[in-house]
Amino acid sequence: MAGKYTKNMLPQEVKDRFAKGEKLNIIDVREPEEWESGHIPNAKHLPLGSIGERQGELDRSQPYVVVCRSGNRSGLACELLEELGYDVTNMPGGMSQWGGEVAYGV
Questions:
Q1: Which of 26, 55, 68, 86 could potentially form a cystine with 74 if both were Cys, beta carbons 3.0 to 4.6 Å apart?
Q2: Distance CA 61, CA 86 (A)
Q3: Does residue 46 belong to any structural domain of this protein?
Q4: How far is CA 9 from CA 12, 21, 55, 99, 106, in A?
Q5: Residue 3 lies in a domain
Q6: Is the pTM of this model over 0.90?
Q7: Residue 34 belongs to a domain with what CATH number?
Q8: Region 5-14: what's the mean pLDDT?
């Protein structure tokens, strides 16, 4: 069910976990121009429309936190990736509520 993904981690929790030195695998599913305008450092850019063809770039043994602008597209990506056998968590609020470090460019 689109928009019903419930495994979530809020932006502040992601930021706090990074601050404690925890390594989180972040997937950003926004479009290229959104990615270039600012993303979480060390995130993997995997636009929503390319997940089907590029999902082999991900490791099914690793958990991922999925990010977009506000949490809607990342929720859809989580539903798709979970169906494909990945351990994923949505970050509702997305980059619009991200208060941590930001990287720019490609």
A1: 68
A2: 8
A3: yes
A4: 8, 17, 21, 14, 25
A5: no
A6: yes
A7: 3.40.250.10
A8: 93
Question: How many domains does the chain divide into?
Answer: 1
- Structural domain including 28 reads 11-97
Nearest to 24, CA basis, from 87, 105, 97, 104 = 87
Side-by-side strand order, sheet with 44-45: 44-45, 26-28, 63-67, 87-90
What pLDDT, in 10s, does the model give residues 37-51?
999 999 999 999 999
- pLDDT, tens digit, 9 for 90 and up, residues 58-105: 999 999 999 999 999 999 999 999 999 999 999 999 999 999 999 998
Known catalytic residues are: 68
Across-strand partners of 66?
27, 90
Q: How many CB atoms lie within 10 A of CB 60?
A: 11
